[in-house]
Design a protein that fits this description.
The chain is built from five helices and seven strands, in the order H-E-E-E-E-E-E-H-E-H-H-H. The protein is of the alpha+beta class.
Length: 205
């Protein structure tokens, strides 16, 4: 027979699982951005700039018509024992990006410090246009920049084959099934333990 403490812990555990599942579901609905394949460009023996690739994966139901992503890194250096900061900037111009698809572009950034580009930059979403105008207001919240330290850097970027069910849809369907399962479990616990709660109340009286 259940005690009040066990019932409370059961409900808390179920609520916690439901919260985690809901958060995972929300986290998937993003347009992920990553930088990779960073290479120095040399003039003679000197590195003058850096070439890299940027990939965006659209894991939302929003169709992007065009968007600019402004990137900024802080380059900190010493001058006569005084710390100074110089901003390294670049803009990624992206055209059409459909849901459940990804695009890769090559860009060149004017800096000799290619290692700086391995750090997570600050970024701003600009000139975002969507197929449905009402979605444009969401542009500032649906983009997420990921680095090699993030799981999405490895998990979300996959080859999308037209005509086949992509992994993002399978993941969303699986999460939905888990949410339904947890809700059924909660209902089951409530129904199953209704009599137990009443018995506990009688014993207390």
């Amino acid at each position: 027979m259940f005690s009040k403490n066990k019932l409370t812990k059961s409900f808390l555990a179920i609520a916690f699982c439901l919260s985690l599942t809901a958060n995972a579901h929300a986290a998937e609905n993003k347009i992920f951005i990553k930088l990779h394949d960073i290479k120095p460009i040399k003039t003679g023996d000197l590195v003058t700039s850096c070439e890299l690739k940027t990939t965006m994966y659209n894991n939302t139901d929003i169709k992007i018509s065009s968007v600019d992503i402004a990137l900024r890194w802080e380059d900190k250096y010493l001058v006569k024992n005084r710390l100074k900061t110089k901003n390294v900037r670049s803009i990624i111009n992206i055209g059409e990006l459909n849901p459940a698809s990804q695009i890769t572009k090559k860009i060149v950034i004017d800096t000799a410090k290619c290692f700086l580009l391995t750090e997570k930059p600050k970024f701003n979403v600009k000139n975002c246009k969507t197929l449905d105008r009402k979605d444009s207001s969401r542009c500032s919240t649906i983009f997420s920049f990921v680095t090699p330290m993030d799981d999405a850097y490895y998990a979300e970027f996959k080859e999308i084959v037209e005509g086949k069910n992509d992994d993002s849809k399978k993941i969303n369907a699986e999460v939905d099934r888990k949410i339904v399962g947890i809700k059924k479990l909660i209902d089951s616990v409530v129904v199953t333990n209704k009599d137990t709660i009443e018995v506990l109340k009688i014993k207390e009286d």
